[in-house]
Amino acid sequence: MAIVLGPNQYGKAEVRLVHVARNGPVHQITDLNVSTALRGDFAAAHLSGDNAHVLTTDAQKNTVYAFAREHGIGQIEDFAIRLGHHFAGSLPGIDGARIEIEQYRWDRIQVDGVPHDHAFSRSAGEKRTTVVTLDRGTAFVVSGLAGLVLLKSTGSEFSGFLRDRYTTLPETTDRILATEVTARWRYAQSDLDFGRLFDGVRTALVSTFASLHSLALQQTLYRMGEAALTAHADVAEIRLSMPNKHHFLVDLEPFGLDNPNTVYYAADRPYGKIEGTVLRDDAPDPGPSWLTLPGFC
Ligand SMILES: O=c1[nH]c(=O)c2[nH]c(=O)[nH]c2[nH]1
């Protein structure tokens, strides 16, 4: 029996980077959380403390800031691909990299209906994400979003489900449907108009949630994924995690009141957790795209 070193990677996690593009008086702000991870031959560092092939995590952090200054940022996928190629291509002993970026949304403040040049308000919660994996010169791009909270006050029912001795849930033909979408989708290639595609996938998800008459959150999830893939040939696969944010009708009978789908209790837990993948049957090989990405089936 021998004990050996298994898969490993290392990098700087959660480098907070804010970039202000000052092209004249109207500024653009990009607010990111960047994590880097390098893969390669780091056996000596782990086995004997020989750091000759270790690019410090401090240097990785510095590179993120320097690249923002030297090249700007643009779309987060393009920034991640640039960083990944740099780490995985230019240094000995490093043959792979994974760059993970979260982008926080800022909206330009309107003053008396006029967009302000340099003042912004942060839109709560929602993040745009990307994970770019560089593997022997090829970039695998998985983009997504998190914290997208959606609700419809009708147009959702849930009935006809399996019943056993513990089933008490009443069937309903009219309920609130609410969820907080986490989505990750894999692009079929890495040379794309990522900003346009992000907007397009987000629109497909949101508009399908709104317009589909839902028979179950599972059906809504599938149809949202299907709409994203139908609209965008460059999206090979999408994985969705959608908690069912239950809204229960409050029993007002003790007070002599009816409740015609008007007064609800918004429960925060427990919640149903509906997760699924929608993909093309001829999707290209994902390679290491999903490696180390937790939280999806
Ligand atoms: O859309 C739903 N899917 C379920 O699987 C489920 N289970 C449950 O209790 N309510 C719901 N709603």
UniProtKB/TrEMBL annotation:
One of its GO terms (molecular function) is urate oxidase activity. Its EC number is 1.7.3.3. The keyword Oxidoreductase applies. It is an enzyme of class 1 (oxidoreductase). O2 binds at T57, N244. It comes from the Bacteria. Pfam families: Uricase. Keywords: Oxidoreductase, Purine metabolism. The active site is at K12, T57, H246. 5-hydroxyisourate binds at T57, F158, R175, Q218, N244. The keyword Hydrolase does not apply. Gene3D superfamilies: Urate Oxidase (3.10.270.10). One of its GO terms (biological process) is purine nucleobase metabolic process. Pathway: Purine metabolism; urate degradation; (S)-allantoin from urate: step 1/3. Urate binds at T57, D58, F158, R175, Q218, N244. It catalyses: urate + O2 + H2O = 5-hydroxyisourate + H2O2. PANTHER family: URICASE. Belongs to the uricase family. Catalyzes the oxidation of uric acid to 5-hydroxyisourate, which is further processed to form (S)-allantoin. This is Uricase. It comes from Frankia casuarinae (strain DSM 45818 / CECT 9043 / HFP020203 / CcI3).
